[in-house]
Each structure stands twice: as structure tokens, then as C-alpha cells.
Write a structure and sequence with these properties.
The protein is α/β, with parallel strands linked by helices. The chain is 34% helix and 22% strand. It has 19 helices and 21 strands. The strands form three sheets. The protein has an eight-stranded parallel sheet. The protein has a seven-stranded mixed sheet with strand order 3-2-1-4-19-20-21, with helices on one face. A six-stranded mixed sheet has the order 6-7-8-9-11-10, with helices on both faces. The radius of gyration is 23 Å and the shape is globular.
Amino acid sequence: MTTVFTGRIRPLSPAIDTQAEAIAVDDGTIVAVGASADLQVRFPDADTVALDGWVMPGLIEPHGHPGFTAILQSDLVVDIRPVLIPDADGVHAAVRAAVADASGPVYANGWDALLQRGLPDPDMHLLDEIAGSIPLVVIHNSGHSAYFNSAAALAAGIDRTTPDPAGASFGHDENGDLTGVALEAAAVEKVIAPLLATAQQQLPRLLLAHLRDLAARGITTVSDLSWNPEMNPLIAALRAKDVLPVRLRWYEMSRPGGVAAPASDGDPVFRQTGVKTWSDGSPWIGNIATSFPYLDTPATRDLGLEPHHIGHANYTPAELLTIAAPYAAGGWQLACHAHGDVAIDATLDVYEQIITAHRLDDHRFRLEHCGAMTPAQFSRAAALGVTVSLFVDHITYWGEVLVDDLFGAEHGGAWADAGAAFAAGHRATFHNDGWVTPNEPFRNMAVAETRTTRNGYRMPGGTPVTREQALRAHTANAAWQLFSEHEVGSLEAGLFADFIVVDRDPLTVSPEDLAHTVVNATYLAGARVA
């Protein structure tokens, strides 16, 4: 049965300024876009649904972590992120209150001394003082480190003899004893293993709630760059109940000696797209690989960084090549986390070797975050067919920190230079990194267009993007980056009818108004899901 949806429609294809009056949908797929009168004549027996607002393609989050975010933003974890608790006193109060009320382990997520000024550098001694015999784990807002007390180490089976996971580490003092610090994903996951085990029993509730929240924000397709394939049966169960409100594209986490999974079956709702690798870490904890040093400021000293500190990569180029090559040989897209310019060069070197060795063409290998990526590096990546996804919300929340506290105007001011990416010919995308910042695609677009923080600070470097580029970053470009352009990304015949209804024209409003766009309804394959 055909349904004709009418309204003020921005298909975002073929031209960005195209406006239509109606779209006809049959069996979840768009069959026509055009004038309302024309479609009523063409489909005289169709049901008609009048949409109140502006209609545009469903938004796409190309770098998410819904599997982990569903847990870390659930009622199993104390949310202390700076977007909710802006000061150190509030963080201390929230953690101590959770410990006082605890009947079991306490997990808190979002510690950020750069934004919550006055927070100490947490270690085992501090957390032992706070929680005593109660296991306490505090996850850094970046997700790249975690802090734990003695009881949490015992609960997770970690002691001074526990070997460091590949590409990660546990902190030790001069005597070899644990300091209560875990650096990088593999170490963090070992520390929070008891939480993950507890959450398994509640994942149907937690994951569905998070995916519904994404749909309510206008996101109809989300990728997960740290997906656990053990959750695949849960997705199958949600689909069987016809309650899955978004499309999922997932990336397997790479590991040394890993073996590529069989090729995806092309499922339009849920399928593996690629494999995630890491080159370096987080700018907020000092472990991104750059050619330039951190500034010597009170903030960097509070992070424990020595004057003129320069971060390093998680792996050598040879190690990264050894990890990544088997997955690429298996036909998978690679997506590598890389912030520092040295890490980006190393990743591009590895990519170039793989592309050449396997004579790859339409590989769409990805660089993730791209904080300190330079215009020359964007050009090199484009020439190799490598695509980029930028974490522009770093500007929103940490713009002043990047310039004044960490890197200065030259390097911090040009952070996440989306304009340079588009100028180099990229189909660039924007993203929020799961639990780190709120899922706010419209704010991403506005910030990339103005390079202005939430406090009104204008970044001294970098290039703003156009409105067309901003809109495509969370629609058509993101679909292409996820090998889904034949399914979603715009409103045109042959694609799925994934669209949202918003309260303002996304093409013509000011950047400030764009950032505050309200999503009134979300449709997946022509059915309302939020």
C-alpha cells in the first residue's frame, strides 16, 4: 500500500536547495518525490499523511558507540560528565553520595579535570579513601582511561602481575604496585568487566532505551565503532519484536592476531561495515602522537604532564600494519582512531602500504576524529581514497581548553578543521563519540559552520564549512562513508523512507537556530518510530 507524505520537504538531493511537497512511499521505500498534486494523481488510492514541519532525511551518526553508551549512560553508572556537572565540587559530591548509598560496586563516568577545574589527579589512594572496601571505578570523560581503587582491582582480578593488554597499560609506581590507573580501551574494559557482566542481564532494556533516544534526536542510522558481536542475538530479538528504531552499522574491534570475520550479508538494517583500529589516544590525557609539544600550563601540570610533553602512539607503524592488514585482506573497511599529526601520518603510511599491496580501489578507509590533522594531510588522505570523520564537538566543549591550556592558537585553534577536509575534496562527516558528548548532530553542523564554542569563543584557526557541507556531513556523506548510500542519506526514489520532521528549515535558519533544531517526529522505512 502506497502512502503519500506531504509537507515542506528538503530532500537534500540532487541539489541542496531543492524543495518538494510530497514523497510517496511503498513497502518502506520511496517511489516518488515531487509536487503534492502530481503524486495524488499518480497514486490516487494512496493514504495521505500531512507532516507538520520541515521534512529532511534521517540523520546518520557515523561514529557512535551505542553498545557501550547504553551501559555507561544507564542507571548502572553515575553520570558525572561535565555536560551535566560543570564543577569539581559537584563531581566529588556525586561520587561520595553514590558510595554512601551503594549496596555494591560503584561506577562513575565522565571525570574531566580540564572542564571540571579543581579535580585532583585520581589514583588508588584517593579512591580507597573515598570508597574503602566498596569497589569504585571512575571512567575519564574521554573513555581512554579509568581510575580504580583496591577493591575494584580485586573485583576485576587485576594485580601488580597482570600483564598489560596490547596497546594499553596499567599504571605502576616505582615499587611495581598498581597506581589505580588504566590507559586505553583494552585496559579500561578489563577494569569495568564486572560492570559489563552485570549489564548483560539488562541489555535488552538498556540498549533499546538508548536506541529510542537516538531516534528521538532524529538519528535513523547509527554506527558502532566498538561493537561486541556477542550482542548480535539481542539485535535479532529486537527485530523479531519489530521494535528496533534505527539502522545499525557496526565495526569489529581489532586485536593483534585477529582474523577477519566472513563478509557481511548486506542486511539493510543491521550489518558489519568494517574494523576499528587505534593509532593514538586522547588529547585530554596527554597520549596523542604529535610533532609539537603540549603547552606548559597549570592545566597540563594538573594532568601530570612534564613541560614540553609530547604524546606517543599506541602502536608503532609496523605493529599497526600487522594488526590492520589481515582485516583489510579479508575485504573490510578500516577505521582508525587518530588525533595527532604524527599518528595521522603513520596511519596514512600504513593505509598506503595496504592499498598498494592489495590493489584496493573503493576501500573508503577511515580516519576518526582528526583533531590535529593538517590541510596537507587532508589532501594526502583524499588522494589515497581515505575518508575522514571529525569530532567537531571537541570545539563545542573544549575549544578554549585546546587553545589556552593545551596546544596554543596555531595547533589548538585549527582543531578538527572540517573546512580544510572539504577543501581537499573529502565527503567529510561529523560525529559525537558515544558517551563523551551528547548526540547533537544539529549542533555539530552549527559549530562546524561557525567554529564557535558553547561559550561564544571563536576558534582562531581552521576553516568554517558551508551549510550544504554541514548538512551532508550527517546525511549523504555519512551514508556514503558507511557504504549505505544506496539505502539512505537523502530523500529520493529507490532509497528507504527514513526521514525526520523538524521545527525549522535546516537550510535557511541561522547557525544558532540550527543548533537548537527540535525533532518532532522520526520515521524509519515510512513508519514512525519517535
